[in-house]
Amino acid sequence: MTHNSDERKRWLALIVLCLGVLMIVLDTTIVNVALPSIRADLGFTETSLVWVVNAYMLTFGGFLLLGGRLGDLFGRRKLFLLGITLFTLASAACGLANSQGMLIMARAAQGLGGAVVSAVSLSLIMNLFVSPADRAKAMGIYGFVGGGGGGIGVLLGGFLTSALNWHWIFLVNLPIGVAVFAGCVALLQVEIPPTDRAKLDIAGAITVTLSLMLAVYAIVHGNEAGWTSAQTLTQLGISIALMIAFLVIESRVSHPLMPLHMFTLRNVAVANATGVLWAAALFAWSFISALYMQRVLSYSAMQVGLAFLPANTIMAVFSVGLSAKLVMHFGIRAPLSVGFLVAAVGLVLLSRAPAGGNVVLYLLPSMALMGLGAGVAFNPMLLAAMSDVSPDESGLASGMVNTSFMMGGALGLAILASLAAAHTGDLAAAGADAVAALNSGYHLAFLLGAVATTMASALAAVFVRTRTHGETQGEGESAASI
Question: Going by fewer Cβ within 10 Å, which terminus of the chain is more open, N or C?
């Protein structure tokens, strides 16, 4: 009876942890549908609007590795509860925001809480389930939540924005956060943190986050200040100096946030490089597609949510099981490269969509191709990052590629959104129709995203080794080699 009770408690704990992760995943997509409403209500410009997304992504990516390290040192349960609390309170602040500054600061706090939750949730699940069969089931559920959460986010965002207003896309997190906190207190055992705590790399986290935030700020405001102005060049110069300081810190501290020696491993380096390029295209696509549908096609928020559904549904289906089967049959390299290439075709198709719009010929096929490409490529990208490292370093390698992914998304979104706005401004100044100029700017962003994704495909095809670390040690059966 006790065994059955403990078993039931473990699975209930998994549901609670996945609910917390779902809340974080939802927040990466639910906002995109409401962006035009937020823009109109708070008076954002086309370029400054990216900070609603980037403030979240930068703190999320900047503190993802540090959050995992804090969990190792002070207890994962404690950090998970702190992360959920911060995320929930920040969600309340976002929902009550009545100014640009308040919303952006609250979004940054959300990103910090989300980083902590994401960093320790997987470790908590791994500790809950030790048998291979149970762990495989648990990871399948966890993967489905991560893959399917995006689809739920765009639909929920569309419904809440249309039926109520954009404030509710954040306020909906409050009851979920309270339920997750209460469930974790009841179901997760209190951990005893280690007595010999290593020194934290706080300086590394601060320098890399400040460097990237300053770079994004300079890029976002480059159109207004001038790309060769003293302000823009100074900001970019300070950003580069901070990044150099980060690299120096990482090469000298005993417990670095991002161990540089990991980049000497071929698959780790390629996975991080492709992650940056892919994220740049993916986040720009998600952000600009929502604006395209509402500002060019005059879609409602709910229609935008429904339009994203094919991409997110296909992405979730492939992420859960089909992607793993492709890896088993073809290795890592082919699914990764082909997945990126399929997504690039979807972006090219979207870059040809006319201002009048044609859902059947352009929008639906491009959404389906983006979902297919992302669903096929995402798991192989994580596997590539971990295939050259020992099992005790797999969590670190996964955290590194996730960090590169978030940082690439933040910088890529800033660059592509700024270039799109600049191109639109030039055409409008030359006398072009406002909608046509806007559409042409979006076309440029989609096309550049396709170029970045094609580059990621080429890198994967040429440099990724398809064997795994286990195969190099002679363990297990080999996946089909390419």
Answer: N
CA distance 298 to 277: 30
Among the listed residues 38, 34, 47, the one whose alpha carbon sits nearest the alpha carbon of residue 416: 47
The CA distance from 98 to 351, in Å, is 35
Whole-number percent of the chain with pLDDT over 90: 14
Q: What is the CATH number of domain 1-197?
A: 1.20.1250.20
Q: Are 42 and 100 in contact (CB under 8 A)?
A: yes
pLDDT of residue 377: 83
Distance CA 387, CA 204 (A): 26
Euclidean distance between CA atoms 199 and 286, whole angstroms: 38
Whole-number pLDDT of residue 320 = 61
Q: Which residue has the tokens 């940082």?
A: 407
Q: How many angstroms from the chain centroid is the CA of residue 371?
A: 15
Reference 351, options 275, 455, 451, 430; nearest CA is 451
What pLDDT score was predicted for residue 94?
A: 92
- Per CATH, 1-197 and 264-470 having the same topology is answered yes
**Matching residue, tokens 């320790």:** 120
* Domain coordinates in residue numbering, the chain: 1-197, 202-252, 264-470
CATH architecture designation of domain 264-470: Up-down Bundle (1.20)
Is residue 139 exposed (0-12), middle (13-18) or buried (19+ Cβ within 10 Å)? middle
Handedness of CA 128, 133, 135, 141 (dihedral sign): negative
